[in-house]
Design brief:
The structure is a homopentamer of 96-residue chains.
Chain A lengths: L1 E10 L12 E7 L5 E10 L8 E6 L16 E6 L2 E4 L2 E5 L2
Parallel strand pairs in A: 3-5
Antiparallel strand pairs in A: 1-2, 1-4, 2-3, 4-5, 6-7
Chain lengths: 96, 96, 96, 96, 96
């Protein structure tokens, strides 16, 4: 999985029926410290992620291994909200 | 999913029979604001996308999770047309 | 799918039996105008592609969704030959 | 597979139930000599990896080919701990 | 598939049981002429590849389409040894 910051919402009405009605979140890929990159993804939310939170992103066929996304044309989901990242016994990220 | 701008059409007559007759659109990968990159993809259209529209692109095996692309050698589809992108309570992209 | 120019052939006798005897083409990844990059791939040919032609390349598990590649350790195939690419009502590539 | 250095732990309580309770390790992608890059991944641990160890990372659907990750939305696992890397008859990495 | 030069061996005793005992080769990704890059992979050997040889590398789920790797957490295999690469009627690589 990679890290991504939830920064917004994407609205699409003309969308494949398998995804219609699902919450599409705008995610900015970031590193383990929450430092954002210039890479943006659209992910289906599985865990009620909030704006500003750091999320764990699962991609590819693994993104379909949930009840919500099973057999849907989805290649990116938010599988978790990061509470804390610890590196070499130091806490380098903590959810606020 | 990633963002892509629909900018044209690709015609291929000598093509795998599983894809023959499907609309192949030329897509330029872009960011959440519609700013295009130098990365181009060819995607099967699932949602009657129009030239100039910003699309949601699904890739890999997820591109085959639709009636049209099931069991076809397709690794890139347009699953939705973006109406609106909202970042931190500001609308940063709106379909015209 | 991505674009690639067919530029040669790869010969391998010591090869997995699932692929043995299949035509392995050397492909140089290119953009929608046929401008080549420094990225090279080896693709199984499904459509009798010729040297110099611009091809549509399908990758990953999608490369196995054909009779020839089904259940074979192949992650890259040529699914079509590009006849024409049209961008914003201009023809920007035409097969010669 | 690629090489990655295990450098920490990621805690997430609001997480997909398929992954809940699994050890999420922070991995910094590295080369065959253990030289780290700026690329960070979160991997499920299958082999009781320790901090500072160099690991073998498997990604994509292959990350789900284990009892622990089967049918889970996981796209990155640690499948092995590297004891030794040998290049052209020289040992260039050895676990300490 | 991509090209890779076989340059060494990786030893791992603390490894997923599905892979245990399999030969893990160190591969340096290269181009069609054998010019190496700074990208390193660990691949399971299917064809008795030797040090210094140029190999064809298959990745992702395609890496599991063999008897040896079926249902194993393996995302990279050597499927062939390159004997010869021919570009525009010139031989640009030949196995020695």
């Amino acid at each position: 999985m990679i890290f991504g910051k939830v920064i917004g919402t994407v609205v699409s009405t003309q969308i494949d029926e398998g995804i219609r009605g699902r919450k599409c979140l705008l995610v900015q890929v970031c590193n383990h410290q929450g430092k954002v990159s210039n890479n943006y993804l659209v992910a289906i939310d599985l865990v009620s992620a909030g704006i500003g939170e750091m999320a764990l992103i699962s991609q590819g066929s693994s993104a379909r291994q949930t009840e919500i996304t099973d057999k849907k044309p989805v290649d990116c989901v938010i599988v978790g909200i990061v509470d804390l990242v610890e590196e070499k016994n130091k806490i380098i990220y903590r959810k606020q």
